[in-house]
Amino acid sequence: MVLARVAGGGGDVLLAVDTAAEGVEVTAHQPLDVTATIGSVTLTAAGGEVIADGNDVARALGTARRQAVLAVAADSLGVASRALAMAVQWAGERHQFGRAIGSFQAVSHRCADMLVALEGARSQVLAAAEADLEESGYLSDLAAAAALDAGVIATEGALQIHGGIGFTWEHPIHLLLRRAQANAVLIGRADALRDRAAGELLVLSR
């Protein structure tokens, strides 16, 4: 999907461009999240199909953005959920001083904080997914901010609970941490999303 400007001041149009078409060059880049692929796209006199023009462009972009924000938020929830499950399992298996480390308050309270962040974010994402985002788009931004924070909180907590083994390349927890950190900047940082939602609410309240 490409946003283009019509020559001669004809306004903006939204195009669907085939990545295999002539004039389209896709260059892969090394991502922070090694389980994902990212790249840059260079267009040189490439052709495309017009998806939206005129007043429809802003509406199409707004809808696409809100859906993308919720998709990334849902992905972050999955990352956080998996990280929490791994942390709880390890806390029950790993023993120190003759006891499972999960019996120590420092570990059990950390897991509880991760669960609270995860479930709070899950509720917001589910509510935003069921809402009419044409009228209340700020819900997707608020839900995503909570989900991004939950993803980072859970993966960082899981890494700490795993201790030394969690810092090794062979252990998969670093993959979850990378995904959470990449998501946290993919659609805008949590603070920026909250600021955007606050701005929209101020406009609606006038």
Report how far apart the termini are: 34 Å
Query: What is the average per-residue confidence, as pLDDT, rounded to a whole number?
Result: 92
Strand coverage percent: 5-15%
- Count of individual beta strands: 7
How does CATH name the architecture of the largest domain?
Answer: Up-down Bundle
The rounded Rg comes to 21 Å
Query: What string, H for helix and E for strand, traces the elements in order?
Result: EEEEEHEEHHHH
Tally of helical segments: 5
How many strands, which pairing sense, and closed or not: the largest β-sheet?
3 strands, antiparallel
Strand line-up across the major sheet: 1-2-5
Number of structurally distinct domains: 2
CATH topology value of the largest domain: Butyryl-CoA Dehydrogenase, subunit A, domain 3
CATH top level of the largest domain? Answer: Mainly Alpha
The CATH superfamily name of the largest domain is Butyryl-CoA Dehydrogenase, subunit A, domain 3
Shape: flat
Helix/strand class: alpha+beta
Defining traits:
206 residues; alpha+beta; Butyryl-CoA Dehydrogenase, subunit A, domain 3; 2 domains; three-stranded antiparallel sheet; two-stranded antiparallel ribbon; 58% helix
